[in-house]
Amino acid sequence: MPSVIALDAMGSDRAPKPEIEGAMLAARNYGVRVLLVGPEATIKAELDRHPSAARLPLEIVHASEVISMEDKAVQAVRAKRDSSMRVGLRLVREGRAAGFVTAGNTGAAMATAKMVLGALHGVDRPALAAVFPTAPGTAAILLDVGANVDCKPHNLEQFAVMGEIYSRSMFGRNMFGAGRRPRVGLLSIGEEETKGNVLTREAFQLLKRLPLNFIGNVEGRDLFNGHVDVIVADGFVGNVALKISEGVANFVRTVLKESLKATITAQVGYMLSRSAFSDFKKRIDHTEYGGAPLLGLKGVCIITHGSSNANAIKNAVRVASEFSERNINASIEQGLAKLRPAPAPVEAAPVH
């Protein structure tokens, strides 16, 4: 049976155009049924611009309010009880959708998801996990990338477990082959165990005791060289690393395109290498990797960029569907259960 994914149709900067077009692509390419959540009249007006949409498994679920990028997260969550975010996440909680996707206000999405869905048993703080390309042509996961700017060592310990399970569940068969588990690294300022701040040094001691393939500290240069599969950081450092990476990717793509068109010789070379250039753009295009799942929730919530285009929305819907189908949340609960000490045996009362 095809997955049913709830999509915040009013989340992106140019909503609802990218959401509608992305939902159509996801429904057509993956057979996913998409529930478009938001003001019915606005969504219907955009759908009417696409006659082929009537033949696709798309459905409108009315929500009278929209949380904007300017809204303060906590206030919006409390005041806008019929927002497209809240209604969409409620569909997940009620079992009417397998997952929820939004390109809206990240802070509001995280706060609403934690309130509506709640955290899995054993999770103190859900974490955002971003996927990005690495040198060998595979992908790595970085978490947390913004859900928690201030963390304790045990938070990073939980992030490591959740990230490893997510990596193994989503990419294991293709990336790791038989017998190899994802390599987990702690993002720091040096490879030595003694390097870093108080948080990373204490987290290192926790991570090295986990039943994971922990390779120790990794540095910023290791994000893309393929030496590590899961990179653990607090949300402040992780978000800075992610945004710098995206900025560098956009800069390289722009400069390379300009250089290839600068001279007649370069233009001829560009025409000859157009296929390779297209492959290069696709590999560094963040829209190909969908959004960032909020790991550790009692449900599936994918958060993607406010600037998302139809391709990003399509892939975020795909990720939500795959996340649900692979039952990753159950695996995360099982993994975190191993971190908790077994309850002390209860002594039987003496028989008199």
Overview of this structure, please?
The chain has helices spanning 17-30, 40-47, 73-79, 84-93, 106-116, 153-175, 198-207, 235-260, 264-272, 274-283, 310-325, 328-337; strands spanning 4-8, 33-38, 58-62, 99-102, 127-133, 139-143, 183-187, 213-218, 230-232, 292-295, 301-303. It has 352 residues and is of the alpha/beta class. It has two domains: 1-123 and 296-337, Isopropylmalate Dehydrogenase; 128-287, Isopropylmalate Dehydrogenase (3-Layer(aba) Sandwich). It has an eleven-stranded mixed sheet with strand order 3-2-1-4-11-10-5-6-9-7-8, with helices on both faces. Strand 1, helix 1 (17-30) and strand 2 (33-38) form a beta-alpha-beta unit. Helix 1 (17-30) crosses helix 11 (310-325) and helix 3 (73-79) packs across helix 5 (106-116). The termini are far apart.
